Amino acid sequence: MARNNFEKASNYYRTTWTPDDERRRLTSDPRGWVNHAMHLRFLDETVGRDLSDKTVLEIGAGPGLFTRELLCRGAIVTVTDLVQEQLDANRAETDALVAEASRWRKPIGRVQAYRTLDLSEGLSEVEEKFDYVVAFGGPLSYTFEKEQIAMRGMLRTCRGLVLCSVMSLDGMLGWYKEHRPEYLDEMPEEVRREFIKTGDMRPWPAKSGHACRQFRTEHLRELVARTGGEMVAMAASNYYSMHKPYEQVLADVAESEPAPALEALYDMEYDACREYPDHGTHILFAARPLQG
Ligand SMILES: C[S@@+](CC[C@H](N)C(=O)[O-])C[C@H]1O[C@@H](n2cnc3c(N)ncnc32)[C@H](O)[C@@H]1O
């Protein structure tokens, strides 16, 4: 079963969802911009803007939208992903970013290493400890039955905070109703009932073949507590902005208003995301290991 999960996720991120698709996910439409902005606000709030000389293990880094942000904050990043193709794209992006920064003598962090790594193996081959472990964009959602091994591994390799984002079950149930009603409507009753309980998409993958586990905050709190950690902060990503009218408002503001107007909308969005962590498309969380 576990091997099967590994192959499905790695085939999906190797052939169906390419590094270019992944890059577009957060850059091509208002929902993506907000998702990116909420992750950055969460990063600011939990670890701050200055990561000079801090070491970060980034898991499931994909083509590097967040690697870039970590480097710009001065971090020393070990970049990892399940899939070599995603890592190659990441290396091309970050090499260009670092070269550009040094041309203009701008301070920037550095990449310590690129390596393939399967989170569901519990990071058993990682011996060192990092100041922060970052797994944004859902790597934890592909570990299924091995989620405790994965969470324990992240807490074990971390001195400071583990930051993750995963898809939100309650938020996505609302999103499907509004944007893709057929996903729930076509599910056989039994499967739907089980999905609403567990968030496991495997019995009924999306049309693209994509299947991951969606979470509730209650389950994540329990997972962190069981694996030797303590939950420090949680937020949704995309609360207002997952609804169609608001997406249009955002697109209009981004096109016609000065940048502060967009920032004000993002601030309002982030306040709601902190208030209602179960009601966005994603859940962000920060946990700390209880024992150093
Ligand atoms: C949705 S992308 C997120 C990429 C990036 N972190 C971001 O947020 O833009 C998920 C990434 O997680 C990787 N991934 C999936 N399962 C994984 C696992 N078990 N271990 C490590 N990485 C995994 C995929 O290859 C993919 O690059």
SSE order and pairing:
Elements: H1 2-16, H2 19-25, H3 30-47, E1 55-58, H4 65-72, E2 76-81, H5 84-103, E3 110-116, E4 130-135, H6 147-156, E5 158-167, H7 169-179, H8 181-185, H9 189-198, H10 217-226, E6 229-237, H11 244-256, H12 259-275, E7 282-289
Parallel strand pairs: 1-2, 1-4, 2-3, 4-5
Antiparallel strand pairs: 5-7, 6-7
The structure holds S-adenosylmethionine.
Q: How would you describe what is shown here?
A:
- The protein has 292 residues and is of the alpha/beta class.
- The chain has a single domain (3-169, 213-243, 269-289), classed as 3-Layer(aba) Sandwich (Rossmann fold).
- Helices cover 49% and strands 17% of the residues.
- The protein is built from twelve helices and seven strands.
- The chain has helices spanning 2-16, 19-25, 30-47, 65-72, 84-103, 147-156, 169-179, 181-185, 189-198, 217-226, 244-256, 259-275; strands spanning 55-58, 76-81, 110-116, 130-135, 158-167, 229-237, 282-289.
- Strands 3-2-1-4-5-7-6 form a seven-stranded mixed beta sheet, with helices on both faces.
- α4 (65-72) links the parallel β1 (55-58) and β2 (76-81).
- α3 (30-47) packs across α12 and α4 runs parallel beside α5 (84-103).
- It is globular.
- The two termini are 33 Å apart.
- The model has no long low-confidence stretch (mean pLDDT 92).
Key traits:
binds S-adenosylmethionine, 292 residues, single chain, seven-stranded mixed beta sheet, alpha/beta, 7 strands, 12 helices, Rossmann fold, globular
